[in-house]
Amino acid sequence: MEEKPIDVARLGTIRCEIAPEPRTTLEGDQRRDREGNPLWVTGLAVRRLEGRRVDTIDVTTSGQPQGLTAGSEVRVTNLWARDWAIEGRTGTSYRADAIQPLTGGGSAPAPAAAGSRGKSGGDS
Question: Which CATH architecture fits 3-101?
Fold first, then answer.
């Protein structure tokens, strides 16, 4: 399915909800990208600029994001979404090039990505 870039400037505040964890197969092995780098999944809470709604998404990255703590504001680089359908189930997986702690004051939105934990979700 088609990957779609996400304009993180329109997302508002992005916070780390669940610290990075290895993204695993059903057998418990850590998934890897095409280049062999280990994949990590981080739970992010996204509060849209308009309204009170907060969404939580799992974003997959190649390599473990460093310095993230639950509740801390983060910057996401190159966030992409991919819709998927497998055996009658559907969803959206998210990938990002990087997730970093936001240093300094104020909100500086950035891209985020994540996939379903332990499931393919369209990521390799």
Answer: Beta Barrel (2.40)
Length of the chain: 124
Q: What is the 3-state secondary structure (H, E, C) of the chain?
A: CCEEECCHHHCCEEEEEEEEEECECCCCCECECCCCCEEEEEEEEEECCCCCCEEEEEEEEECCCCCCCCCCEEEEECCEEEEEEECCEEEEEEECCEEEECCCCCCCCCCCCCCCCCCCCCCC
The pLDDT tens digits along the chain (124 residues) read 688 999 998 888 999 999 999 999 999 999 999 999 999 999 999 988 777 888 999 999 999 999 999 999 999 999 999 999 999 999 999 999 999 998 754 444 443 444 433 334 444 4
Strand partners, 92: 83
C-alpha–C-alpha distance, residues 12 and 62, integer Å: 24
